[in-house]
Amino acid sequence: MLPTHLTVKGHKVEALRLTNCKIGKRYDDKNDPDEIMYDVDVYRSKNSADTLRYDDLDNKLLGMGLCSACASNAADYYLHKPISRCAQLVNQAIEGNPIATKRLVDFPGYCSEH
Questions:
Q1: Which residues span the domain enclosing 42?
Q2: C-alpha distances in angstroms, 16 versus 6, 22, 35, 46, 81?
Q3: Pick from 39, 2, 5: nearest CA to 21
Q4: Residues 26, 52: one domain?
Q5: pLDDT digits (tens), the chain, 114 positions
Q6: Are residues 42 and 61 both part of a single domain?
Q7: Do both 99 and 112 map to the same domain?
């Protein structure tokens, strides 16, 4: 858990501020009963169309089972290098191809190279 304020040299200072999003629904981590998790909800009106497109795609890839860094890389390829091998694999997975989804979750090397 991240604190919103810290004490520095005896003064309370802001350490964390959410500007384009808010704390969302709370849920408990099933693997660690002492861990409390919250969703982060994006203020769609405060973000550009490009940012929202990236965020939506990243969330979709996370929902397919990709790790956080993997989803980020795959979304970047899909949006910025659409004819790349990785982007084509992402497209197939998004369209519902289960073989492409499994391959993407296994995260081939050509999706991690830049």
A1: 1-46
A2: 9, 12, 20, 18, 33
A3: 39
A4: no
A5: 677 788 999 999 988 888 888 888 888 777 888 887 788 888 999 999 999 999 999 999 999 999 999 999 999 999 999 999 999 999 999 999 999 999 999 999 999 875
A6: no
A7: yes
Cβ neighbours around 16 below 10 Å, total:
9
What pLDDT is attached to residue 1?
63
Whether residues 8 and 31 fall in one domain: yes
Total domains present in the chain:
2
d(CA 63, CA 66): 7
Residues 13 and 40 in one domain: yes
Looking at the fold, whether 87 and 59 belong to one and the same domain comes out as yes
Q: Kindly write down the DSSP assignment for every residue of 52-95, as one continuous string.
A: HHHHHHHHHHHHTT--HHHHHHHHHHHHH-TTSHHHHHHHHHHT
- Would you state the structure tokens that stand for residue 35, as one six-digit string? 């861990």
Structure tokens at 67: 């790790």
Q: Which residue do the tokens 């629904």 mark?
A: 25
